[in-house]
Write a structure and sequence with these properties.
Blueprint lengths: L1 H25 L5 E5 L6 H17 L3 E5 L6 H9 L6 E6 L1 H4 L15 E10 L1 E6 L7 H10 L5 E4 L5 H13 L4 E4 L6 H6 L5 E4 L4 H5 L3 E7 L23 E8 L4 H14 L3 H9 L3 E6 H22 L2
Helix pairs in contact: 2-9, 2-10, 6-11
């Protein structure tokens, strides 16, 4: 009887494997939906649309981008988590999607474990910007003043618990400088806050880019793995000796996506990174292209989540 059960069990496994292989060989045979949990027109939306268009050439099917904004990406992410793991519903991952769970918000899904990771495609460039006539010419100038005058300098970000905010919290902790956080209603409000001198500096995504170009603002440092091609003279936090969080941009799918299908998607999206239209869009938005396979994306996200959790805990002490 035991032998018979073993044979039946092995046959069942073989049938599942065979079915998975057959499914992968046929995949995709219809359009794919890509969920972007942000409003149309933002940096993630713009880059995801161009990348998806480029990936179509390697998949042989259209990729239809749908926006599901709201509740700090949790509406779109929740929809993606519940989708059938067949490769026909995929989505984009941004740092906000896993940071919100660290703010005490109850989510109907696990922000890390309920997804399959397809590939990375880039980092949003985040940086400290001051007004052009600011006395702070380097990050060290800003830190020296803040250490000598704790609480005198105010900084703006897109909000409490964002990548931008937590990176400054890490900077304060490691440099012993002390700033006052003035959270704004999203990134778009940060630039006007600085231009109106309501804050002394901002830590933001590239909303400052037009003002850097018009010489109204100056960048002191950026949060990136390496120096930006657009701003090669601006040092990174890492080279200055400080920790920083990455503003993740990746392609994901619901958990339990069959590996052969996940691998096909990874291959297509990683090849799409060489597309000129995609590269031009990333450069226009001052975003850096980063090529990583799915397995490394999950490790990166887990590391970023752990660092963010550590930073949030340190702010409560």
């Amino acid at each position: 009887m035991k032998f018979k059960r073993l044979v039946v069990g092995l046959a069942a496994i073989a049938a599942v494997v065979a079915s998975s292989i057959a499914q992968a060989q046929q995949y995709p045979d219809k359009p794919i939906t890509l969920i972007v949990p942000w409003s149309a027109g933002g940096s993630t939306d713009q880059t995801a649309r161009v990348l998806a268009k480029a990936a179509e050439a390697y998949l042989g099917q259209p990729i239809i981008v749908v926006n599901r904004p709201g509740a700090s990406t949790t509406i779109g992410m929740g929809e993606l988590a519940k989708a059938k793991p067949d490769g026909y519903t995929i989505g984009t991952l941004s740092s906000t999607a896993y940071l919100v769970s660290l703010q005490g918000r109850q989510l109907p899904f696990d922000p890390i474990q309920d997804f399959s990771y397809i590939s990375y495609y880039g980092d949003n460039l985040i940086g400290i910007a001051v007004l052009q006539d600011s006395p702070y010419k380097k990050l060290s100038d800003l830190l020296d003043f803040a250490k000598a005058n704790p609480g005198k300098l105010k900084f703006g970000t897109a909000g409490v618990g964002t990548t931008q905010h937590l990176t400054i919290e890490a900077l304060q902790r490691d440099s012993k400088a002390k700033f006052v956080h003035v959270p704004q209603q999203g990134s778009a409000a940060s630039a006007p806050a600085l231009l109106g001198s309501h804050v002394d500096f901002i830590m933001e995504t590239s909303v400052w880019a037009p003002f850097i170009e018009s010489k109204q603002m100056r960048l002191l440092a950026v949060s990136a793995v390496q120096r930006s091609e657009v701003y090669p003279d601006v040092p990174t936090f890492t080279e200055l000796g400080f920790k920083s969080l990455r503003s993740v941009q990746a392609i994901i799918a619901p958990k339990d996506l069959p590996e052969p299908i996940r691998a096909k998607l990874e291959n297509a999206f990683r090849k799409a990174l060489t597309d000129k239209a995609f590269q031009d869009t990333m450069k226009k938005l001052a975003m850096q292209i980063v090529d990583l396979p799915g397995a490394e994306v999950k490790k990166l996200v887990e590391g970023e989540y752990a660092l963010a959790k550590e930073l949030i805990e340190s702010t409560k002490k």
